Every structure is written in C-alpha cells, then in structure tokens.
C-alpha cells in the first residue's frame, strides 16, 4: 500500500552497552522519547550533570508511560542507573581492551536488562524482589510444580536469547558460503521456535497499556 515502517527491534539482546540496547529496542518508542523528552530538556548540550539528569528524567517518564505503578518507575530508574554507570566508568570502552571483552559486555548488558525486566513484568514490588532473590540465590531448591510458570518463562527467555545470539553471530558467515541447505534449516528453526515457544496470547503484556 506504499507505506514504509522502520525496523522497530534490531537484535537488542546482542548489545554491548545499555546505551546501544536502547538504539535497538523498541526503536519507534525510544526515538520518540529522545525527540520529545530528552532533547527538549536540553539533551547533552548543557554539561555532563544535566545530561545525566535529562537521561534519568526521560527513562523514568518512559517507565511511567508504561504504567502508573512503582514497578515501572523502578524499571526506568534501573536503566538510567545502568546508563549513568556506563558513562562514568566508561565500561564499554574499557571492556573493548580486554580479550573477549565484547562477549563479556554483551553478557553484562543481558544480565542488567533481565534484572530490570523482572520489575517490568512483576505484578507488585514484593513479587519483583522475591524473583530477583531467587535469580541471585544459587542454593535454593526449586519447586517445579509450584513455580511452573516461572520455570517455563525462564526457559522460553533463555532459549529465545540463545537462538537470537547464535543466528546473529553465525548467519552472515554461513550465508557467505552460499550453503542454501544451512540457510533453510536456520529459517525452519526460527519458525518452529516462534510457533512452539510462544506464550499465551491473552498474557501479552502490552494489552494492559
């Protein structure tokens, strides 16, 4: 129909910094907040402190946009904290100088984003804290029957991210070999993953916004 829609998600989970994550995740929304909140506040044009403050305001407003609850405010504040920490300590730049630093940075971003998602998805602050405690406690005993939804969700997320990272790092190199069979098999795995690892439609989180 002659309509062009820009890419909205560009492999966000392979990002090597939280700043990069927000250039890849929900691009239409993050661009809107940058253009209509961050830049009008002054962006990064009024010194380092104001740059951090404007970024914090933008991220917290973004959280509040998703829902009028403390969980979403904390989610936005966590991303602001991660970004400020990166800027002050120059974490991505330092990791680039380390052997395998790219993969360490990607894992670090993934860990930070997953912790933040807990607050985004939890129905209460107390539930979010309990889930984070479970994630960070490696000595707990899992009750698979009582925590079946949590275990299933964790499995889907982990599987999806592993598939995402595998195809991103290997697809281009395999395609260069012009091996059509491998390419077809990759698309088959992607399609089957989309079909069998999907959640229930009624539980799609954006229905509540």
What does this structure look like?
There is one protein chain. By secondary structure, the protein is mostly helical. It has two domains: 1-135, no CATH class; 141-209. The protein is 68% helix and 0% strand. It has helices at residues 18-24, 27-38, 48-66, 70-89, 91-96, 101-121, 125-136, 148-176, 180-196. Helix 2 packs across helix 3, helix 4 packs antiparallel against helix 6 and helix 6 runs antiparallel to helix 7. The longest helix is centred in the C-terminal third of the chain and has 29 residues, at 148-176.
Q: For the residues shown, what is the average pLDDT?
A: 82
Total helical elements = 9
Return residue spans where pLDDT drops below 50 for at least 5 consecutive residues. Answer: none
Specify the biggest β-sheet. Answer: none
Tell me the β content. under 5%
What is Rg? 19 Å
Helix content: 55-70%
User: Could you give the order of the helices and strands?
Assistant: HHHHHHHHH
**Strand tally:** 0
Count of discrete domains: 2
Overall structural class, as computed from helix and strand content, comes to mainly alpha
| Overall geometric form | globular
Oligomer: single chain
Compute the separation of the termini in Å. 28 Å
Which helices and strands appear, and what pairs or packs with what?
Elements: H1 18-24, H2 27-38, H3 48-66, H4 70-89, H5 91-96, H6 101-121, H7 125-136, H8 148-176, H9 180-196
Helix pairs in contact: 2-3, 3-4, 4-6, 6-7, 8-9
